[in-house]
TrEMBL record:
Pfam families: DUF4880, FecR. One of its GO terms (molecular function) is sigma factor antagonist activity. It comes from Hyphomicrobium album. It comes from the Bacteria. Residues 123-215 form the FecR protein domain. The lineage of its organism: Bacteria, Pseudomonadati, Pseudomonadota, Alphaproteobacteria, Hyphomicrobiales. This is DUF4974 domain-containing protein. InterPro entries: FecR, FecR_N, Ferrdict_sens_TM. Residues 15-57 form the FecR N-terminal domain.
């Protein structure tokens, strides 16, 4: 049997395990369903591993991720045996034959897999892996990175205004603008005229990088001006200090690249998940602390899986819908 055959078999086992788990937690499972899952798990060590992996995945994704995964990997649930059709309550299932599963079935916050209402209502929005160039009415150029939502606001006073609802945008304003361009990101207000800068906002923390010219930032009662090569963050922990960075690394996404220098694997995975369909789920904290020095093409970010496997001995467990467990 070839390596590809082994992977295909493992993927199919994982798909079957997930279907059985969905049946058990549906609230409609019968005694026959429970017995069928027990029988299936004991067919081989590989079946047992697949079911354990499905439990871990179900726990990590949270309710939003589970819903998306079900839509992506919809398959008929295991056929019920004839006989007792008595439906078990969820409490009976978790307290009975599959009580070991209960520790995994904890409600978690949504995994940010689908967009919020404010993102859907934005004037411009990019999907995962998509980028878009937009010329604003004042001649400014705005390039949107993956999963970015921008809303245009009515001019206020002597300013044109846009709001970065979420995501990342590179903006270049002309030197001949009659009035500065204002960008709202969370609680911050960025003002620029004749400048180039990058703004990233994940709904909690914003990161502003000045590439050319000068960028003014107002955050609460605090104000500062960024010079080329400077970056600042703000959010739940307040306003940070301006720091010197390499703008080429920040702007590499515009050239279709992701560049990492001594970056923990856990952070690399978070970044790569912004670009690929599905989700890579890191299951090993020690593995996540391994540092990565590499660059990846945005259209082929799954190279990180090969690197993690070869460099760190990571185990890759694929699931339908682009879900991958990394342990």
């Amino acid at each position: 049997m070839t390596h590809t055959d082994d992977q295909n078999m493992e993927t199919e086992l994982n798909r079957e395990a997930l279907a059985r788990l969905r049946c058990l937690v549906s609230g409609e499972a019968t005694i026959a369903d429970v017995e069928e899952v027990k029988r299936w798990r004991h067919l081989s060590p590989a079946h047992e591993r697949a079911f354990a992996a499905a439990n871990r995945l179900w726990d990590r994704l949270g309710p939003a991720g589970r819903s998306v995964l079900e839509r992506e990997a919809a398959r008929p649930t295991p056929r019920r045996r004839s006989g007792s059709a008595r439906t078990l309550t969820r409490r009976a299932v978790l307290g009975g034959a599959v009580a070991a599963t209960a520790a995994y079935l904890v409600v978690r916050p949504p995994a940010d897999i689908w967009p919020s209402l404010s993102e859907l209502a934005a004037d411009y929005r990019t999907a995962k892996g998509e980028q878009q160039r937009i010329i604003l009415g004042d001649g400014s150029l705005m390039q949107l990175n993956t999963q970015t939502s921008v809303s245009l606001q009515a001019p206020a006073g002597n300013h044109d205004r846009i709001e970065l609802v979420s995501g990342e945008a590179a903006i270049t304003t002309g030197h001949k603008l009659e009035r500065p361009l204002i960008v709202i990101a969370g609680e911050g207000r960025i003002s620029a005229q004749g400048a180039s800068f990058n703004v990233r906002f994940d709904g909690r923390t914003a990161c502003i990088t000045c590439i050319e010219g000068g960028v003014d930032l107002q955050y609460g009662a605090n104000q500062l001006t960024l010079s080329p090569g400077q970056q600042v963050t703000y959010g739940e922990r307040g306003l940070g200090r301006a720091a010197a960075i390499d703008p080429r690394m920040v702007m590499a996404w515009r050239d279709g690249l992701l560049v990492f220098h001594s970056t923990p694997l856990a952070e690399v995975i978070v970044e790569i998940n912004r670009y690929r369909p599905g989700r890579i789920v890191l299951m090993n904290g020690q593995l996540g602390r391994q540092t990565v020095n590499a660059r990846f093409r945005i259209h082929n970010v799954d190279e990180i899986l090969t690197l993690a496997q070869r460099a760190f001995g990571a185990r890759i467990t694929p699931f339908p819908g682009g879900i991958v467990l990394l342990s």
